[in-house]
Structure formats: structure tokens, C-alpha cells
Hints:
The complex is a heterodimer.
Chain A: E1 6-8, E2 14-16, E3 23-32, E4 35-45, E5 50-54, H1 61-68, E6 76-81, E7 84-85, H2 91-96, E8 99-102, H3 114-119, E9 125-126, E10 129-130, H4 132-145, H5 161-174, E11 179-183, H6 191-206, E12 210-214, H7 218-224, E13 227-232, E14 235-241, H8 247-255, H9 258-268, E15 282-289, E16 293-300, E17 305-309, H10 316-324, E18 331-336, E19 339-341, H11 346-351, E20 354-357, H12 361-364, H13 372-384, H14 392-405, H15 422-435, E21 440-444, H16 452-467, E22 471-475, H17 479-485, E23 488-493, E24 496-502, H18 508-516, H19 520-534
Chain B: H1 2-9, H2 11-19, H3 27-46, H4 53-62, H5 64-78, H6 86-102, H7 107-131, H8 136-154, E1 159-160, H9 164-171, E2 173-176, E3 179-182, H10 183-201, H11 203-213, H12 215-220, H13 225-251, E4 253-254, H14 262-272, H15 284-304, H16 310-333
Antiparallel strand pairs in B: 1-4, 2-3
Amino acid sequence: xxxxxxxxxxxxxxxxxxxxxxxxxxxxxxxxxxxxxxxxxxxxxxxxxxxxxxxxxxxxxxxxxxxxxxxxxxxxxxxxxxxxxxxxxxxxxxxxxxxxxxxxxxxxxxxxxxxxxxxxxxxxxxxxxxxxxxxxxxxxxxxxxxxxxxxxxxxxxxxxxxxxxxxxxxxxxxxxxxxxxxxxxxxxxxxxxxxxxxxxxxxxxxxxxxxxxxxxxxxxxxxxxxxxxxxxxxxxxxxxxxxxxxxxxxxxxxxxxxxxxxxxxxxxxxxxxxxxxxxxxxxxxxxxxxxxxxxxxxxxxxxxxxxxxxxxxxxxxxxxxxxxxxxxxxxxxxxxxxxxxxxxxxxxxxxxxxxxxxxxxxxxxxxxxxxxxxxxxxxxxxxxxxxxxxxxxxxxxxxxxxxxxxxxxxxxxxxxxxxxxxxxxxxxxxxxxxxxxxxxxxxxxxxxxxxxxxxxxxxxxxxxxxxxxxxxxxxxxxxxxxxxxxxxxxxxxxxxxxxxxxxxxxxxxxxxxxxxxxxxxxxxxxxxxxxxxxx
Amino acid sequence: xxxxxxxxxxxxxxxxxxxxxxxxxxxxxxxxxxxxxxxxxxxxxxxxxxxxxxxxxxxxxxxxxxxxxxxxxxxxxxxxxxxxxxxxxxxxxxxxxxxxxxxxxxxxxxxxxxxxxxxxxxxxxxxxxxxxxxxxxxxxxxxxxxxxxxxxxxxxxxxxxxxxxxxxxxxxxxxxxxxxxxxxxxxxxxxxxxxxxxxxxxxxxxxxxxxxxxxxxxxxxxxxxxxxxxxxxxxxxxxxxxxxxxxxxxxxxxxxxxxxxxxxxxxxxxxxxxxxxxxxxxxxxxxxxxxxxxxxxxxxxxxxxxxxxxxxxxxxxxxxxxxxxxxxxxxxxxx
Lengths: 535, 335
């Protein structure tokens, strides 16, 4: 997998024998307000390696990258570039020194052309004026060499996210980069596109570029990376050879003791039969919406977790949104408790004690400029009405209780939401809905993009709530997770419900077989592949 | 009416025109151009003497200062900002010009003083917006009051301009056969041309669009965000004072009541010209057309003679509404 000469020392730390690091970060510390984001972290990058930066959400990976690229200023510690001390005051300075970054969210400009997005800031110029033709030609050459076939003069915004991501990488590659940092570059790419990206990465590595690769996908890390640095809670855990580390070892390094919690959860959560004799908490009769979901029936009873399984685009999210009234149904109706009516807005659902946590937490949930406490209390305040403020004592008590119950870090109700990591933001959103004490909680992808420790805590909380009598609709792209939590399983495909069964001894491959349907002999392998790529 | 008959007669050309689809980013400007041609055709059919080319040239002459203001405003709006101070800066400019000339300054020194004041005010507001992170609306609202206040400070009375150089420049014309253009209009057109070049072909210009698209992305791409963001307010301030100079040539007096509400005309022209108020999309040529459309409405109403002048405001308002709604749909369609 690697062409480098690597020597393992007795301690397990590895360095290439024949070359000096291109970047060496020593004892870097950064503090935001009262939050210690990085605590004396070190990182060494050698030319011609793919270096995986590993850690859970909030471990400090993104912060470390931004410290290197001059986005954040460093409180203490040194950065050596080619052996000389060097601090970058801005991303432009880092870029000029050959450090290019592709961030997790595509940080490009949808209103400009593809060529401009690739070359802006270093476009070919003649007498100070941009040579548009030369720029488009250079962009086209670059795109072709990466195997991307798009018109460089088209607006970037016209292309799907995956293409935009590749354009971002094309931009980073165009700079004579010595160091290329890829922060979660594969999160929105499909398997073919990932393969293409890896091809490009290998080519660049062989040319002597040091590549930093950050990803939640362990399989991808094992496929592409040579060495890795593991962070946990803003501190350095270890620097290791990928080949010398098993996946299990790596997970243990990343999450520390919390692995035990996950294992314990596996034993605790097992399917229980809900009492289906009474009235269901929610009953959807023939609910559907043109272009997003065919007419579907669904019943959810007190104290049960209904898992919606299915591939992306199978109608999971669409069903959840119709149940909550976030989208208006064309056909059918939803009965909540004893009242039967068409839900026209989320208001109706909230008034009937239904809570919905959206999959798009960034756009539809998190209010970054408010504190953790305010974010938690938003839903409760909204349901009380703005004229009845929550007494201060109650506020403090509720917020503290849920910070503790969900182990939100930092455990500071006055911390700004945007300074929290993704996993902790998700926990705050969960708390927001739990505080309203709903009878039915709809969770759409509550654990996406967050680390294993936070995932385990959220799962445990969901199981605990169901045991106390709350009805839960749980959606996740990870089938293992749906199976682990659900009492009853609803399988979706092609925007309709294709199967519903009690979750007893159902395995992931069983579900995949249901999804694959009749043509399963050929397709099940493929879906397993796809599922594996996503997980 | 005349336009449609011309195209129908040439069938194959019409087919080609139908087959051609311009890039969607040009659509708003094309819509404004079509509106302008449509209005002009309407006037030509309804009113005698309207189709005289001199009507068009007079449109440029009468609106020269507004064109320059709209050019500066386009830069600011493209970054997603707004500049409310330009109307007051026009008044301040006329006042500085009138007062310094009254004090016996050389006319060229007086013009330099005007331009320097406007540019400096723009710089001040740009620094406030970028480094103190103050909303452009608030920073330039402060500029609006400051500039208007300074105008009153210089003189509450109107001061007329009688300097021979000024009056000579004001009436200097360029003739094309039977038709003429005042040189103030030529300055305005040159300003448009320079601005169009800067926006399309320089790194500064493209960074303006980049900031309007997404400021933090532009920053992460290593573009000079601070320089550019302050720069657009400097340009707008410069354009406002240049517009003020052109206005003082046009009106030959300094008065603290000049150009009240003109900033809103400039903003309206920019929006009607197809520039998105949220920034990132638009062309300075569109703003020129926007000014001309507004001017043409005024001319149409004066030709009509039966409509009161407040109809100008009503029609401008309606047009603005239509364009903003159309833009809303145009931008929503994109993924």
C-alpha cells in the first residue's frame, strides 16, 4: 500500500527513515473562551505520505487543521515548515507556502464559474487583466487530468455537490501544493467518485505531496493512509503506522473507555413487544405526497421504537416529514391520540405532543449564536407561547439536568452552540425535544456524522425513553443502528413501505435482502457494498 | 410593436433567435434591456417626437449623475452590502464645490477637494463595515446623516455656482450631426465602461463577486477579502462624489436639500438592472439600463402631460416589486 521506507521503532511510533518532515507542529494549544480546544498537540507530516488524522467529533481534528492553515491563531506551540519556524497569519499565507486545504463543507462560490472557482486568486493575467481564455483552458486541462468532464465556463452552482467537491480538490491540486489537507472529502461522494479521488491522491503522494486525510470512514482510512495521528478530547493520543494498527485498536484509541458503554448497550437493548391492544399514539392512514411518497399506513404504539430502514432516497425522511406535518400530505390523514386530521403544519403536531428532530441539523435545528441553554429551551418556550417565560430556576434546572443526562461537553449552559462539536450539537437538539416531554419523538438521522461515543449515548437515551413509555420513530442510514434500537422495523424502498415486521433476530443481510427484493441474487451484493460505503 | 414586425419578416433569423439560449446569469440584464426597448417603443408609438434619438441622448445627460451613483452602488451591492450615504454625499459634494468656489479656490482644486471628501467618507464607512463588523445598513446610515449634517454646517442657504470654468464645463457638448451629448454624460458612460472592465476582468472585480457569493469561502480561498470589502465602499464614495460633481455641473448650485432620497433611486436602478440584493450576481451594464428605465418612465410621464409626477414613484415601486419577485423565483430554481 505504501511506497515509503518506514521503520517501526520499539515504541510503535514510526517515521520515514530517509526524509525530514515538511511540517512539524509541536505542542499546539488553542483555547476558545473557556473551552480548551487543543492541548499540546503535535503532528508530523512527511513528504510522500497520506497521513490520517483520526479522532471523534470534537477531538480537535478540524481545529488542528485550522491552526495549521492560519484560520485560527495559536495560543502556544510552534509550527515548523521545512525545519524553520513559521506561523501563518491567514489562509492566503498558508496557501502561498504550499499548504492547500479542502474543507468538509464545500467552500466554493456557486455564483462563479467552475474555472474561476479553481483558479481565482492565481488566475492567468496579462497586464493586470484576467486572461479568461487561458484560465478556462487551464481549468479544462486540470479537470481532464483528474477525469472530471464538465464545462469550466458553467456556473459551479449548477453542478451536484459531489462534482463541486471534486472541483474543490482540483482547486487545491492546482496550487503547487506541498501539503494537501482533505477534511472529510468523501462524505458526499459515491463509491466511484471515492475511487477517483483516491486515484488522484495516490498520484499526488507519489509526486511527493504530503496529504492529510480526515475521515469518519475507517475502511477508507485503511485503504489510503500510510500513517496516522490519533486525537482525543483535544489531546494527542498516539502517532502510528496504519498497517500496524487493527481497526479495533484504532477505535479503542479514538474513544478510550467509552467503548465499554457501547458494548453494554448492545446487551441491554433488545426487542420488546409493545402493547398493541390500545390506541396507537400515532396512526397514519394512506398518507402520501406526490413525488415524494406513495400512500403509506403506519401505526406507532406507546413505548415502542419503530425503525425506518431503507437506502438513501427510499422515502424514510419523506415519511417522517409527513408524520410531523413539515410537508403537507396530498392524501391520507394522521391520527394522533384520539384526534384525526390532516396535519397542515408542524404546529399541529407539536400541539399534540409530537417532536421531530430533522436530519439537516445545520439548517433546521442549530442556532449557532445562542447558548446551549437557549437552544435547549427553544421548543419548550415555543410550545408555552412567548408570553409565558420559563422561570429562571426551572430553566437552570432543566438545562443542567439534560447536560448531565446526555453528557454534553462542555458542560456549560452558557457556551455558544456554534463552538460545540457536531455530536454535542446533536445531543443539545435531542435535549430540546426531550424537554417538551413528547409522546412521540421522530428522530431523523440523529447520529449521522457524530462519533461512536456520542452515538452510544444517544442510542442509550432513546432506549431508556422508550422503556419509560415514549413512542419513537427512529431513522438512520446505518442499518446496524436501526436494528439495535428498534422493536419494530419498517422497510422502505422506492418511496413506499415494502415490509413491516417485529425486530426479532433480523440481521443486516435480512434487511438488505428485503430491500433488494426479487432481483436480490444480483443486487444484494451491490447494496451491501453501498451500505458498507456509507457506514 | 415595430420590433416584432421586423423580426417576423426575417423568419430564419427568428428561428435562430428562438434557438439561442443565453446563459442564465445574463437573463436579468436581458429582461431589463427588453423592458427598456419596450418602453421606448411604447413612447414612440404613443407620442409624437418621442422616437427622436435626442430623447435617448437627453436621457443620458439628465441621468449622468445617477448612472455614476448606480455604478458605485453596484460594487457595494455585489458584495452583499448597501450604501445609503450616496444621496447625502451628492449634496455635500455640490456644497463643497459651491463654497470653495465662492471662497475663490481654483475650480480644479475644488473638484479635487470634492472627490477626496467622498472617497474618504467611503473609506471610513468601509473600515467600519469590515473591521468593526458593523452592518452596512447602519454604517452607511451614519454616513448619510454625517454627510447631510456637514452640508448644513457649511451653509444652510443655497449657494449658486458662477465660476466660468464650471459653467463652461457644464454646457460643453459633443455633437454627432444633429444630435449632441454633454460631456457629463460621456464621463458617466466611461465610468460604466471602466467599472464593467474592473468587475469582469480584474482580480479585484472577481473578488467582489466572490464575497457576494460567500464571504467565508472567499476568505478560505485566500482572496483579499478585507481589501476588497473596504475597496467597494471607497469606490462607492468616490462615485458618489463624482456623481455630486456631475450634479453640480447640471444644477450649478450647492444646496443642502439636493438629492434627498437619491440613494434609493440608485438602489432601485441597480435592482431593476438585475443585481441580486444578496450579492454575487449582477452587471454594471444592468445598472445603467436600470437608470435609463427609471429615466424613461419619467420622460414618458412628462410626454403624456395628463399624469401627475407621483406616478413616477408608483411605477418605479411596482417595477421594483416585480423584479425582486422575479429574481426570487430565478434564484430559487437553481439547485
